[in-house]
Amino acid sequence: MQCPKPSISTALIIGGGIFGVSTAAQLSRMGVQVTLINDGPLGNGASGRSLAWLNTARRRSLPYHRLRQAGIERYRVLADRNPGASWLSFAGGLTWDAEDDSNEIADVFRYERELGYPAELLSGEEVSAQIEGVDGAQVTSAGAILNANEGWVDLPSLIHQLAAEVTAAGGTIVTDAGRAELIVEDGRCTGARCADGRTFSADKLLLATGPAVPATVAEQGITIGDDTPVALLVETHPLSHPLRTVLNTPRVAIRPTPDGAFYLDSGWSEEEVVVHQNGTFEALPSTVSELIDEARKVLSGAPDLQVKAVHLGPKPIPGDGEPVFGELEKLPGCFVAFSHSGATLGLLAGELLAEEMALGLRHPLLAAFRPERFAT
């Protein structure tokens, strides 16, 4: 059976993060001529400062769970096609809660098992015996959940691999173009204009600019709920340590990197970011130091972690916490991608959005995540 032929010949992607580049690569595979424009270098936004934990752990709506599960499966395929890749790992995810009334580990474990999500409940002693690099003595009495199907991806590496595929197929990538505004003619989005005056037109357009999406569509009188916070990600210097599993603990989340460093974040440290009146952000030295201390506590051997970089910037989260994907009903020709779970959904979202843009489909997996839900 022949694959359906695209109903468009050109597409414009605004945004050089994982959603934009993934969609561009998928459209290129379908034979669509793609132009991608970004305000700075590729991956300079939320994708470049993401923990990039591949998961659908804990509780969320069933449509969102199914979408994330399908997203993880796409990475499994990618891993098979890139054996030994240092930028993609499926060494599992381990999580435990605080030793207080907020501890939900027992209920979450049963919930995940009832969904058929791989989950194993481990004591602290079992964690020490089974998970390299973790101090099991830090696990609270309710235990820790090991989700063996989970992993992590280094998004900048993946973005550049996908971008190379786009240019090899004849696509155009324009970086450092500044902010782009939509061009609307007769009620339809026909392209975009960059800050330097350059204009780009196409049959269909995808707006995938992370936390900037709601403000851009608001200029066209369209509302997308926005609950974007400022994220803090601490990057350590590389060191020799056996941890390969992603950790999500009460005071710190930890993800290994391809070069032996760690990425660290948490909810409490995010809340301590200082937002100045001029729009700049600052991480307090005390916050960074405490995050490092919390990481040393849960890592075996309490390694000497040294800060290499502190990454700050908006983390895209829609107003109701769930993704926003698809064409804007009030602005035909313009599609949007706006979601917190960029890493987990990156490959799948690119695939589904490319099909919707090129083939005129409305994929059932995206039915619960249309932008029009905010219109009411």
Automatic annotation (TrEMBL):
<dbReference type="InterPro" id="IPR036188">
    <property type="entry name" value="FAD/NAD-bd_sf"/>
</dbReference>
<dbReference type="Pfam" id="PF01266">
    <property type="entry name" value="DAO"/>
</dbReference>
<feature type="domain" description="FAD dependent oxidoreductase">
    <location>
        <begin position="12"/>
        <end position="355"/>
    </location>
</feature>
<dbReference type="GO" id="GO:0016491">
    <property type="term" value="F:oxidoreductase activity"/>
</dbReference>
<protein>
    <submittedName>
        <fullName>Glycine/D-amino acid oxidase</fullName>
    </submittedName>
</protein>
<dbReference type="GO" id="GO:0005737">
    <property type="term" value="C:cytoplasm"/>
</dbReference>
<dbReference type="InterPro" id="IPR006076">
    <property type="entry name" value="FAD-dep_OxRdtase"/>
</dbReference>
<keyword id="KW-0560">Oxidoreductase</keyword>
